Amino acid sequence: MPPILDRLNDAAKRKVLALQDYFILAWNALRFIFARPFYGGDLVQQMDAIGVQSLGIVLLTGFFTGMVLALQSAVQLQTFGASMYMGRLVSASMIRELGPVLAGLMVAGRVGSGIAAQLGSMKVTEQIDALNTLGTDPIKKLVVPRVLAALIMLPVLTIINDCVGIVGGNLIAQFYLDVPTSLYWRTVWEQVASDGFVLRFIPNDFVQGLTKPFVFGGIISITACYFGLNTTGGTEGVGISTTRTVVTSSILILVLDYFLTQILLSVLVAP
Amino acid sequence: MIDNEPGAPSGPAAPPEAPDPSRPLDAGEIADAHERRADDVIRRKQEERVRTAIQSELSEDDADAAPRPRAEDPGPLEDAVIELERVYLSFDRPILEDVSFAAFPGETVVIVGESGTGKSTTLKLILRLLQPDSGRVYVSGNDIAGLSFTEALAVRQKMGMVFQSAALFDSMTVFENVAYPLREHTDLDDDEIEARVRQKLEFVDLTPDEVMDRLPAELSGGMKKRVGIARGMANNAEIMLYDEPTSGLDPLTTATITRLIMKLQRELNVTSIVVSHDIRSAFRMGTHIALLADRSIRFFGTPEEMAASDDRYIRDFLGGF
Lengths: 271, 321
Prior knowledge:
Chain A has 271 residues and is mainly α.
């Protein structure tokens, strides 16, 4: 085989092996959620780091995204005399798409990079080996609390993001389009109810809007842990792992958002 | 001295040619002579096992008899706390080839050798952080090479490891670092844990009240190493492994760490494997020295035997010492 094909062959094998390692890590992380020992303290600490400490950035982005969405839509809606539908437009966009994706991207940037840097530093300073030698499984101690915290906190952050985004839209509707607040919120609810319910009382929009952040939480945390635990090459390697985490998580969020939307739309059929 | 091929009988041996006593010995022969001289106990035990296995092979006529011990797999040496038996390991290139040595209770085996010869890798094999391609790694008579990652976690609880960089958890205080293995693997209450942590810190000549609440970043290099030793022995480990415990330290601190390792051996009869570049410390603390060269054990014997060796490589390695 010519040398260039050899190299391509080796590179392809490495990629496949890396993908295999990624899925093994994901499987172990999910499997060990139910295996002893449980690190409750670490879980609470990670929920604080991933959820509570991300609150500021999520509030800010959600609020301004809701406002700019309303502002951009206002011109079009006014043209057709449909200003009263502002609530429907903002809520549909925020709950189904912008809320989950924006919260995911913000957490990938803030938390994913942090996890990768922390685990990467621990790897290059032999702290991961130290955990192993002290009889602790690093996946149970480090990965599981982070993955679990992200799975719990990202949907919570998304709900908050959705809410402040809709409130931002409300401000623009009221002060720019003169749409009364009561009308705005009525149209918000009409939109939520119009897409039907799962189990009679859970709006389809909510199912769609909360399935995505749950998946994104898993993607961000596992990607960050994977790159962090596979860090090599000292401090430079930590930087590379951090960058790879943010880039890979962001791409995966955007790509998976499309496929999740396709699946959810076909499953959650409106009445 | 360990015979590097203890379990490889090759049939009836041809009578050796009578050596010419006037012929000067080459380096290989000198090394062989030292190997024959060094550590008779280990060799005798291994030869005995091989002999038993061969006799068993020769006298066995019944094909349906119970499985016989294979000559290539003589099993662990009696009493050996740690034993590597014909270990081979390679990544993208060979790292270790036919490495065999053993450490008995209370012994300190210092592994020396040039950089990149697989010294730290040997420690990782003993910890079952790596698995050999072939060969056996026995810890307290149990072959750990075949254990799963999870099973190996339990074996590691009997061992303490001191890393080159100390590898203290930088988000935890000194107290939390030393208490970590106790919280993980014992049912001790908080008072008992504190008492144990104080005891271990005092053992490594640190004042508990001064250091317990400090973060690792606030400690000097020597203090970090001492906290690392305290953490390693917190669970009353029977086996201590040290990876370059004196690297990057000034001569006085190096002497302190060396004394500590000797104190552990003397007072607690801990079996230790030390990887070191520091020949002076190795000679002080080691009951045996293993020299890794060209991926295998080039010499295994007491410091005195190593110092007396005429092997050109060993002389060069020891340099001006």
